[in-house]
Amino acid sequence: MTFDEIIGQEHIKKHLITSAENGRIPHAQLFVGKEGSGTLSMAIAYAQHLLCSFSSDANACHIKCNKLQHPDLHFAFPVTTNDKIKKHPTSNLFLEEWRSFIENTPYGSLYDWLKHIGVENKQGQIGVDEAEDIVKKLSLKSYEGGFKVMIIWMAEKMNIAASNKLLKLIEEPPSKTIFLLVTEDEGQIINTIKSRCQALHFPSLSENNIVDYLSKNEGVENQEANRIAQQSEGNLNKAIHFLHNDSNDLIFEEWFITWIRSAFKAKGNAAVIQDLIHWSEAIAKSGRETQKQFLQYCLQFFRQAMLLNYGAPDLVYLSPQTGNFKLEKFAPFVHSGNILTIEKEVNDAQYHIERNGNAKIILLDLSIKLTRLLHTKEQKIEA
């Protein structure tokens, strides 16, 4: 993957190329950006630039890098056990799947990756077995005599044991060894590792970037490309999902509307609490990554309702497919009097699910709080 294939982020491309040409190559770098901003693709393109610019056979180098088979290009990413790998999962055991994932979805999310390997109901992590593998790989000499590059994708998924094992290596790596840590949430990376990395922050892609991509690569008409670009909020991965009518959103919409209707009716009607209990039990069976994706969808739905409530229909792209549910009828119940608390409670639920809390209890607690929040009155400001 070359820099020419990266969507947008021109100033970051220029910075990386210029610093490499001038010999200013930090041994540990942190690429920080939201899903769909191109952090992983940029890391791969940068690694290819480092490996091939200083190679004695640049053409052969580019061929190997394009196939993600260069012997001095290494990857670590979140994994977990599946039907084939019963214990001690490491990235090496999933390299074939990883190459096909990058080829087909270079802007894909962690959830997409876990779906790709058939474990979307589990949480992936980078554990101590992975860290031991990294130490072994990087203790060897460079195969081609140049740089060795280790890309750690979703570095925030390193557990404490793995982080501590890699700390010394990241601080003092062997000669010509480059660490590229790619993350969506640098706050989850331990400070002792963050402090040893030079951080590059990636902005979300512009609507023009996404429109250009959809027009050139997907053959989408300009009007439709603009609609999808607005809806995707700078996330190319989301734009591609929207284009291909990802079924997850339809399932999430059904869950959300069932939840909202039950929560709304539950106030003053104890019998409806049983519906919320059944709803929480059903969602809890879906797996933690799916639950986190769903809660993120809920935040998006609430924000869209508030925008409609405050007279900004041009910014509203959500169009529920569920029969007899009208966003304009729901919108008045999301306002300045409850939106911040709703967001806090949903984010807290995501946090606790991420940390292996009991999903059934977390979701039921959130549901009961929502029954009160939806009936909160907006305080009118008197002139």
How many strands? 5
Q: How would you classify the helix and strand content by structural class?
A: alpha/beta
How many alpha or pi helices?
17
CATH superfamily of the largest domain: P-loop containing nucleotide triphosphate hydrolases
Shape: globular
Mean pLDDT: 89
Beta-strand percentage range: 5-15%
The SSE string, one letter per element, is HEHHEHHHEHEHEHHHHHHHHH
What's the CATH C level of the largest domain? Alpha Beta
Output the strand order for the largest sheet.
2-3-4-1-5
Portion of residues in helices? Answer: 40-55%
- What is the total domain count? 3
Radius of gyration (CA) equals 23 Å
Poorly predicted residue ranges: none
CATH architecture of the largest domain: 3-Layer(aba) Sandwich
Major β-sheet, in short?
5 strands, parallel
CATH topology of the largest domain: Rossmann fold
Q: Separation of termini?
A: 59 Å
Report on this model:
52% of the residues lie in helices and 7% in strands. The protein is an alpha/beta fold and 383 residues long. Strand 3 (148-153), helix 7 (160-171) and strand 4 form a beta-alpha-beta unit. Helix 1 (10-21) runs parallel beside helix 2, helix 14 (288-309) packs antiparallel against helix 16 and helix 16 (339-354) runs antiparallel to helix 17. The longest helix has 22 residues, at 288-309. The radius of gyration is 23 Å and the shape is globular.
